[in-house]
Each structure stands twice: as C-alpha cells, then as structure tokens.
Here is the input.
Amino acid sequence: MAVLDILVYPDPKLRRVAEPVADFNSEIRDMVKDMAETMYAAPGIGLASIQVGIPQSIIVIDVSDDHNDLKVLINPEVIDSNGEQIVEEGCLSFPGYFAEVKRAEWIRFRAQDLQGETYETEAEGLFAVCVQHEIDHLSGKLFTDYLSRLKRQRVTKQFQKAARQRQRDMARKVG
Ligand code: ZN
Here is the structure.
C-alpha cells in the first residue's frame, strides 16, 4: 500500500481521458487500495485515477462521516439524472480552492466492482455530487470548467502562479 502523489492543476495530465478497465486483476486491486489510502490521507471524499496519473477508469469515494464506507466505481457511467443542486465543491487537484457548481440532485449510475461485476445504483445529495465530479475527471473535465469565464481565468492564473512558485522553490533546492 502506498500514498500516491496527487496531480495539481494546471498539470496537463489532468486533461487525459481514462481507458476502460478490462482485466480485473491483482494490479487493479492494488491500484484501488493505493487510491483509497491516498484519498483518506489527503483527506478527501473522492479520487479519480486520472488525478494520480493512472489513465484507467477507476474512482474511489467515501462520503461517510466515519470514513468506513468505501465505494469503488470501475468504468462508471451516469445512466439517468434528475433535479438540480448547487453545492460548493473542492478538488484535491485544486488545493484550497472551492466554488459553487450546479449538478443533478439525483442520478442513477452503472459501474463495475473489483471483481468486474456490473452493478447499478442511485445516488443523491453529496454522494451524487461526488460521483458526477469524479466521473468528469475520467474524461479530463474539471469542476472549474463549469465556472464563469471570469472566475475560471482567476483560478487558472492563481494556480499557474503557484506552479511557477513551486518550480522556483524546487530549482533553489537543487541549486
Ligand atoms: Zn476533483
């Protein structure tokens, strides 16, 4: 088990599109364990494989208060949705940044579990927000894509500046 590095915006790898998982082997099981450990350590309530540089269609989510209700979604897709909710979202790839996003209030989704078994289930409220946010990651979509142009420009600049600062700090350490 290992805590993985989480990619931070504007890392271009966050725009990659995940490939479907075809083999439900021990490598995938280990990957899911590492992703769960990474999510809990962050701490966060959801993590998509794209965020740790693995372009395979895997999501881990735990929205429970006690962090004991891990959901594993492999090759997930939303098959029905209804209603609207506006919730302030954060993202482990945008540390310290929060913004309101409009999402469906209720969704029905299909996914596979660690054994490759397909299941269908419903989600509402925070769980539904989280599933929609993480599924977006699998196609390279970020929650800031939903913001107004002005807000998006502001957050893009803020994170580009922070990335340059990290590079300078790194160069100083190497030098
Ligand atoms: Zn995110």
User: Anything to note?
Assistant: The pocket of zinc ion is lined by residues 91-93, 133, 137 (CB under 6 Å).
